[in-house]
C-alpha cells in the first residue's frame, strides 16, 4: 500500500511549498538560542542575552497574529514579503549593534523589529488546508508538519550554537536570517497554491480570538508552552549539576525525537468522531508524562523519561490544528493558527522564567516541579473549557450543508 505521506505530494506544487516552509521555519529554533550564544560570547552578559531572546519571543507573540490577520485579508505574498524585510533589517541591525558594542537600547529595539517575523508554519498549514480541506489527507498533512517542526527543533539549535562557537559569534543568527529570506521569498513566489485572501469587509473585521473554542485552545497552550520552556531550562541546569552540561542538547533532542516518532505514527491513523476528546486526552497525557521527571536521578533516566514524554506532544499539536479548522472561520484560519503559536510562545517565556527562579532557589531537581504544575494547569483549563470547545462554531465560511454536517458530527 502506498504511504499516505507520499500521497500527500501528488498535489501540484506541494513539494515546493513544503520545502520552502522547512527553510522558512528553521529560524524559529535558531534565532533565540543564536542570540543568546552570540551576545554571551561578545559581552559575557548572560542576563542581557536572555533578556534579548525573551524580547524577540514576546515581540513575535504580539506581532505574529497581526501579521497573520493581514495575510488572511490580503494574501501571503503581499504581506509576508514586507514583514520579512522588516524582520531581516532589524536582524542586521542587531548583528551590527552587538558587533560594534552599540548601546543596549539599540539591541532591544532591533529585537522588537525581529518580532515581525511571520509564522511560516501557519502559512504552510493554510496551504495544506486549501488543498485537502474536508478530506483524510488533511490529518496526514498536519501530522507531517508537526514532524517537520520537531526536526527543526532537533537540528536548529545544534546548527546555531555550533556555528556561533566554532566560526564567529554572529554566524548562528546570520544563517537563521538567510534561511528566513530564502524560505519566505521562495514560498511567496509560488502563487498557484496560495490560499485565496478574504478581505475585511467579508469577515466583519473582528479578530479570530473572539471564537470561544480558540480562546480555550490558546489559554491551554499558554500552560503547555510553560511545560516546554521550563523543561528546556531545567534540563540544562540538571545536566550541569551532573557535570555533563553538553549532554543537555542530546537529552532535549530525544524529547523532540519522541514527539517526531509519535507524529509520524499518528499521521498514519484514521479517526472517527469529534476530535475534542482526543485533544483532552493528549493534554492529560502531556501532564502525566511530567510526573516521572520529578524522580530523575541521572541523565540516562532523564533521557528515557523525556523521550516517552515527547510522544504525547505531536499528536496533541496535530489534533489542535484540526480543532482550529472546526472553531475558526475559514477566512481567519491563518490568524487562528498563529494565536495558538502565540500562546505557546508566551508560555515558553513564563515557564523558562519561573523555572530559572526555582533553580536558583532550590536546585534543578526541584525545577522539574514547574513543568509538572504547568501540566496540571493545562489539564484544569482544558476541562473547564471543554464544553465551550465541544460546541460547533456558530459562524464559519461554508455552505448550509457543511454547517449541518458539522452539527451532526459533534452530536454523534
UniProtKB/TrEMBL annotation:
Domain Major facilitator superfamily (MFS) profile residues, every copy: 213-412
Subcellular location field:
Cell membrane
Q: Which GO terms describe its cellular component?
A: plasma membrane
Looking up PROSITE patterns in the UniProt record yields: MFS
GO terms assigned for molecular function: transmembrane transporter activity
Q: Which domain of life is it from?
A: Bacteria
Region ranges (Disordered): 392-412
Q: Which InterPro entries does the record match to this protein?
A: MFS, MFS_dom, MFS_trans_sf
Q: Does the keyword Ion transport apply?
A: no
Provide the primary localization: membrane
Q: Does this UniProt record's set of keywords contain Transmembrane?
A: yes
* Annotated Basic and acidic residues bias: 402-412
Task: Write the signal peptide boundaries.
Answer: none
Q: Which organism is it from?
A: Streptomyces regalis
Q: What is this protein called?
A: MFS transporter
Q: Which SUPFAM superfamilies does the record match to this protein?
A: MFS general substrate transporter
Entry's transmembrane regions:
20-40, 46-67, 79-99, 105-126, 174-189, 209-228, 248-267, 279-295, 301-324, 336-359, 365-386
Q: Which UniProt keywords apply?
A: Membrane, Transmembrane, Transmembrane helix
Q: How does it sit in the membrane?
A: Multi-pass membrane protein
Amino acid at each position: 500500500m502506498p504511504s499516505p505521506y507520499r500521497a500527500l505530494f501528488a498535489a501540484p506544487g506541494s513539494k515546493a511549498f513544503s520545502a520552502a516552509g522547512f527553510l522558512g521555519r528553521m529560524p524559529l529554533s535558531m534565532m533565540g538560542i543564536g542570540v543568546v550564544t552570540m551576545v554571551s560570547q561578545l559581552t559575557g552578559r548572560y542576563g542581557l542575552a536572555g533578556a534579548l531572546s525573551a524580547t524577540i519571543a514576546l515581540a513575535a507573540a504580539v506581532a505574529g497574529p497581526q501579521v497573520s490577520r493581514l495575510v488572511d485579508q490580503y494574501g501571503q505574498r503581499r504581506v509576508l514579503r514586507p514583514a520579512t524585510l522588516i524582520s531581516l533589517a532589524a536582524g542586521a541591525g542587531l548583528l551590527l549593534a552587538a558587533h560594534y558594542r552599540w548601546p543596549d537600547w539599540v539591541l532591544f529595539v532591533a529585537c522588537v523589529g525581529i518580532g515581525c517575523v511571520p509564522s511560516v508554519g501557519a502559512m504552510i498549514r493554510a496551504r495544506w488546508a486549501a488543498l485537502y480541506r474536508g478530506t483524510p489527507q488533511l490529518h496526514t498533512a498536519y501530522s507531517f508538519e508537526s514532524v517537520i517542526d520537531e526536526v527543526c527543533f532537533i537540528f536548529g539549535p545544534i546548527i546555531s550554537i555550533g556555528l556561533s562557537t566554532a566560526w564567529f559569534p554572529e554566524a548562528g543568527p546570520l544563517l537563521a536570517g538567510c534561511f528566513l529570506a530564502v524560505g519566505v521569498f521562495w514560498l511567496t513566489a509560488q502563487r498557484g497554491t496560495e490560499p485565496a485572501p478574504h478581505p475585511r469587509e467579508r469577515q466583519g473585521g473582528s479578530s479570530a480570538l473572539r471564537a470561544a473554542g480558540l480562546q480555550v485552545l490558546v489559554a491551554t497552550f499558554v500552560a503547555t508552552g510553560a511545560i516546554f520552556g521550563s523543561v528546556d531550562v531545567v534540563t540544562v541546569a540538571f545536566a550541569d549539576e551532573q557535570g555533563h552540561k553538553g549532554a543537555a542538547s542530546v537529552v532535549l533532542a530525544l524529547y523532540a525525537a519522541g514527539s517526531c516518532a509519535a507524529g509520524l505514527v499518528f499521521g498514519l491513523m484514521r479517526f472517527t468522531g469529534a476530535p475534542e476528546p482526543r485533544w483532552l486526552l493528549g493534554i492529560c497525557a502531556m501532564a502525566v508524562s511530567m510526573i516521572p521527571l520529578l524522580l530523575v536521578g541521572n541523565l540516562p533516566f532523564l533521557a528515557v523519561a523525556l523521550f516517552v514524554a515527547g510522544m504525547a506532544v505531536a499528536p496533541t499539536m496535530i489534533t489542535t490544528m484540526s480543532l482550529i479548522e472546526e472553531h475558526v472561520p475559514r477566512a481567519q484560519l491563518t490568524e487562528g493558527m498563529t494565536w495558538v503559536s502565540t500562546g505557546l510562545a508566551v508560555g515558553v517565556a513564563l515557564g523558562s522564567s519561573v523555572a530559572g527562579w526555582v533553580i536558583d532557589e532550590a536546585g534543578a531537581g526541584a525545577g522539574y516541579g514547574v513543568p509538572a504544575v504547568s501540566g496540571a494547569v493545562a489539564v484544569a483549563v482544558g476541562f473547564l473549557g471543554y464544553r465551550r470547545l465541544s460546541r460547533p462554531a456558530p459562524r464559519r465560511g461554508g455552505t448550509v450543508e457543511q454547517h449541518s454536517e458539522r452539527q451532526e458530527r459533534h452530536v454523534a
